[in-house]
Design a protein that fits this description.
- The chain is α/β, with parallel strands linked by helices.
- The protein has two domains: about 220 residues, Up-down Bundle (ABC transporter transmembrane region fold); about 250 residues, Rossmann fold, CATH 3.40.50.300.
- The protein contains 16 helices and twelve strands.
- It has a six-stranded mixed sheet with strand order 6-9-10-3-11-12, sandwiched between helices. A four-stranded antiparallel sheet has the order 2-1-4-5, covered by helices on one side.
- A hairpin with a 2-residue loop joins strand 4 and strand 5.
- It starts with a helix and ends with a helix.
- One of its GO terms (molecular function) is ATP hydrolysis activity.
- Keywords: ATP-binding, Membrane, Nucleotide-binding, Repeat, Transmembrane, Transmembrane helix, Transport.
- It is a multi-pass membrane protein.
Length: about 475
């Protein structure tokens, strides 16, 4: 259930939740629920029953002991109350200092190449040691609190033994019963210690249940839609016509809109370039096509169907997107191009040939069945981008969205990518979010955005003719 909730969670959740926190829920917290809570409950039940049995036996052997039971009980209550409050805070401190350590380790592993390139190994090592020391200090305080409890319960146990001894001397009970009562009095210290520690541990461990439950109660994306999948034409979208009506988008209900009343019309098969400065809303518009952000007003209509009515799986499976960081999955080249195994080998080779990857794949052992490592690390960024293009071609998507797809590749690979797009998607609608403005000079339509609004909207030739225009200034700066 937890995995399903994460997989179906809104995209915003991954933007606002650190990876280390998610890993902690699946590792430490799940381990606590599965491996720690059951034995803690069993130990608490056993130690409580043993403690009550010991007190009952002492009281039966030396009834006078009942007089001292009330003050001893009050002392025990305050000791356990004081310890449980401190123990809970110290355990939370230990957990809170562990999370930055996990996050730092994860970030270091992911950015190892950059760290080495800028020779910042010492700084990251020092930061790791600082975080480790902070976590160790919290753990030492927690251990010290446990030792504090043991000392207090030992004193309390000694008082119980002393009280039971005095009660046995003052009474006229059978010597055998007195001896049995004293024997139980000697063991009660250990029972008391475990009762308090188990109570404190259980209270802290239930925090893991609360944390996991917060993920389980997280609101998922609306996958259903109002339109039945059977009502969607089999080859939708076939033409690639896009109408954007007064589109307003925000990332969360309590945040300001990132797109404000955006209007645009894209004809079937048009090549559209979108540019603007950082924060202008370019990527937010691309996310809106896949309903990864909250469209709270307006609509996007593709081939006559409002995308807000479509089941989410249907919408996302019918459109293609290529991101700045291309994604390949562990497995084979065949799996990455056609995960559902619907296409023939000839179709896959055709896609690879169009993407100018055919010769490279043929040279690999296994060809289409050649291994792709995690994240596609055995291929360059440019090759991964071309694989993503081949995948989009295989899917026969009539709409392709490229979100700064050329930002991380060199000029030579960028030229290949542009050539492939112009060839393979000549009759399809292509929306390009431009990192380099010169990549959209050949587009049929250019949209310039600023602060969530469309600033300029025309052909590249018309916009370049406006010497004081924003697009013209972008082109001059890019030359």
């Amino acid at each position: 259930n937890l995995l399903n909730k994460i997989i179906l969670g809104p995209i915003r959740f991954f933007d606002t939740t650190p990876l280390g926190l998610i890993l902690n829920r699946f590792s430490a917290d799940t381990n606590i629920i599965d491996q720690h809570i059951p034995p803690t409950l069993e130990s608490l039940t056993r130690s409580t029953l043993l403690c009550l049995s010991a007190i009952g036996m002492i009281s039966y052997a030396t009834p006078v002991f009942l007089v001292a039971l009330a003050p001893l009980g009050v002392a025990f209550y305050f000791i356990q109350k004081y310890f449980r409050v401190a123990s809970k805070d110290l355990q939370e401190l230990d957990d809170s200092t562990q999370l930055p350590l996990l996050c730092h380790f994860s970030e270091t592993a992911e950015g190892l190449t950059t760290i080495r390139a800028f020779r910042h190994e010492t700084r990251f090592k020092q930061r790791m040691l600082e975080l480790t020391d902070t976590n160790n200090i919290a753990y030492l305080f927690l251990s010290a609190a446990n030792r504090w409890l043991e000392v207090r319960t030992d004193y309390l146990g000694a008082c119980i033994v002393l009280t039971a001894s005095i009660a046995s001397i003052s009474g006229s009970s059978n010597s055998g019963l007195v001896g049995l009562g004293l024997l139980y009095a000697l063991t009660i210290t250990n029972y008391l210690n475990w009762v308090v520690r188990n109570l404190a541990d259980l209270e802290v461990q239930m925090g893991a249940v609360k944390k996991v439950n917060s993920f389980l109660t997280m609101e998922s994306e609306n996958y259903e839609g109002t339109m039945d999948p059977s009502q969607v034409p089999e080859h939708w979208p076939q033409e690639g016509e896009i109408k954007i009506h007064d589109l307003c988008v925000r990332y969360e209900n309590n945040l300001k809109p990132v797109l404000k009343h955006v209007k645009a019309y894209i004809k079937p098969g048009q090549k559209v370039g979108i540019c603007g400065r950082t924060g202008s809303g370019k990527s937010s518009l691309s996310l809106a096509f896949f309903r990864m952000v909250d469209i709270f007003d307006g609509k996007i209509v593709i081939d006559g169907i409002d995308i807000s009515k479509l089941p989410l799986h249907t919408l996302r499976s019918r459109l293609s997107i290529i991101l700045q960081d291309p994604i390949l999955f562990s497995g084979s080249i065949r799996f990455n191009l056609d995960p559902e195994c619907k296409c023939t080998d000839d179709r896959l080779w055709e896609a690879l040939e169009i993407a100018q990857l055919k010769n490279m794949v043929k040279s690999l052992p296994g060809g289409l069945d050649a291994t792709v490592t995690e994240g596609g690390e055995n291929f360059s960024v440019g090759q991964r981008q071309l694989f993503c293009l081949a995948r989009a071609f295989v899917r026969k998507s009539s709409i392709l969205i490229m979100d700064e797809a050329t930002a991380s590749i060199d000029m030579a690979t960028e030229n290949i990518l542009q050539k492939v797009v112009m060839t393979a998607f000549a009759d399809r609608t292509v929306v390009t979010i431009a990192h380099r403005v010169h990549t959209i000079l050949t587009a049929d339509l250019v949209i310039v955005m600023k602060r969530g609004n469309i600033l300029e909207y025309d052909t590249p030739e018309s916009l370049l003719a406006q010497e004081d225009g924003v697009f013209a200034s972008f082109v001059r700066a890019d030359m």
